[in-house]
Amino acid sequence: MLIEFTGVSHVYPGSPRAVVQELDLTLTESRIGVIGANGSGKSTFARMLNGLIVPSSGTVSVNGLDTARKGREVRRQVGFCFTDPDSQIVMPTVAEDVAFGLRRRGLSKPEIAAKVATTLAAHGLEGYGEHPAHLLSAGQKQMLALSSILVTDPAILVMDEPTTLLDLRNTRRVVAAIESMHQHVILVTHHLDLLADFDRVLVFDESRLVFDGLPEKAVEHYLGLME
Amino acid sequence: MSTTIGLYRPGTSLLHRAPAGAKLLLLLVAGAGSVLLDTPLQTAVALVVVLLGYAVARIPVSVLLSSIRPLLWVLVPLGVFQTIVVGWERASVITGVILALVLVANLVTLTTMTTALIDVVVRVCGPLRRVGVDPERIGLLLNLAIRAVPLMAELAAQITEAQQARGQRVSVRAIAVPFVVGALRRADELGEALAARGFDD
């Protein structure tokens, strides 16, 4: 994985100030954490990683693809998991939602069914295929959201506070899922303890990257900012 | 939270296994054929046939009743009005036909996965490609409309609950503003999620 931010700043239309300012960064590690206070720019940063947000100035490239010009190709490589699973579940039943992302990939129905079954089994949703998605528990919904992304086998997974709405048990399920993934993971979170084994942690504050380093030092820096 | 909308119920019955296209065609034929029903006896037979369909599909009586309950708000006043104006025989035919048609449509959605229904719509709309219409987009639109029902019901319940928690009486005006704002926010999030999952064209 090679993600490069070059001179990146972003201002939302109508907003007087930039949410991300003058960011130059290269990301190659397998597990990268992103922390910061609310409004510090970390969610905007996350959305730039798969071209959901194109920077007002500067460029973001993912494995050589410019997110501004090759957004669709980038999104094939970069899956995105949102905080609220209800926002990303688009089909009425569990299996249908997982199959949704495979609709345009030229796979046959048996191939799609096999991939869906394997993915559901791998994420604790075996037997729930025909269950209405909106009747799942919050934890199951987040595992469904994750399954729906992973079934397309992206090279990189960006997760924007995926455990914020979950209890401890379900948080642990998501963490276990992250640990078992072969994908590169970029995790935005307020749960600092999830990052202990990560390779690198970025700290955002007031729209700027203010620390970039190992988890322990990054968390220390962040806690210092909060005092 | 649960809603009474007729969404798919897993099963292995004959109706569950029947092709979605055939079921939709049957629904179309039932709709067109309903104009031929003219007497209370014919209407009663049609209703019995529909109920037999529920039995074949092994749909629980509780699900059937929950499908009928919201209809009563329309059927009862309509039945009373028609009885006064045109007599009980015509009134029973009119209300019976409406009930039978809604129950047939409900039976189709209860026994058919949404994906299968959408696939039929996409196939039927296939020729529209020639005039620049993307059938997949029509299918997705239908699907999102179905998906929006439980989401919006949940949103309305949350807003009502929040108002009650603040000691307010339920007021339609006080519900409308947060509901519209919440629905628009959900629509934004859903659009973002669709783009993230590759449906951004």
Radius of gyration of chain B: 20 Å
- Kindly name the structural category of chain A: alpha/beta
**Can you write the helix and strand succession of chain B as a string?**
HHHHHHHH
Number of domains as seen in the coordinates of chain B: 2
Q: What oligomeric state best describes the polypeptide chains here?
A: heterodimer
The best one-word shape of chain B is: globular
Can you write the helix and strand succession of chain A as a string? Answer: EEEHEEHEHHHEHEEEH
> How much of the sequence of chain A is in beta strands?
15-25%
CATH superfamily of chain A: P-loop containing nucleotide triphosphate hydrolases
* Strand percentage of chain B: under 5%
Protein name (chain B): Energy-coupling factor transporter transmembrane protein EcfT
Subcellular location (chain B): Membrane
Keywords (chain B): Membrane, Transmembrane, Transmembrane helix
Transmembrane segments (chain B): 20-37, 43-64, 94-122
How would you portray this structure in words?
The complex is a heterodimer of chains A (227) and B (201). Chain A is built from 7 helices and 10 strands. Chain A has 227 residues and is an alpha/beta fold. Chain A has a single domain (3-226), classed as Rossmann fold (3-Layer(aba) Sandwich). In chain A, strand 4 (57-62) and strand 5 (65-66) form a beta hairpin. The radius of gyration of chain A is 18 Å and the shape is globular. Chain A starts with a strand and ends with a helix. The mean pLDDT of chain A is 93. Chain B folds into 2 domains: 14-124, no CATH class; 132-196, no CATH class. In chain B, helix 4 (61-86) runs antiparallel to helix 5 (88-111). Chain B has 201 residues and is mostly helical. The two termini of chain B are 33 Å apart. Chain A binds chain B through residues 47, 50, 52, 71-72, 75-76, 79-80, 82, 84, 86-93, 96, 99-101, 103-104, 130-132, 134-135, 148-149, 152, and chain B through 2, 7-8, 10, 113-115, 136, 143-144, 146-147, 150-151, 154, 186, 189-190, 192-201. Chain A: GO terms for molecular function: ATP binding. Chain A: InterPro entries: AAA+_ATPase, ABC_transporter-like_ATP-bd, ABC_transporter-like_CS, ABC_transpr_CbiO/EcfA_su, ECF_ABC_transporter_ATP-bd, P-loop_NTPase. Chain A: Belongs to the ABC transporter superfamily.
